[in-house]
Amino acid sequence: MDLILGAYADRHLARLDDARLAQFEALVAVPDRDLYGWISGAQPVPEEHDNDIMAALKARPFFPAGPGRGDE
Fold this sequence. Notes:
Elements: H1 2-12, H2 18-28, H3 32-40, H4 52-59
């Protein structure tokens, strides 16, 4: 989760307003297993974390397409 959240932070953190920064900080505090389940779609996102930041995380492809990744 550090790679996913870190990549998001590197790209967006400087532009987040206070509300979205609070959303991001709340997600950082979530246990990795839960957060990964939500982002991957394996588990439903709890209402308190169903926000703009979570939507952006769920929409990003985290692994590039290419040979050997089942997407040929």
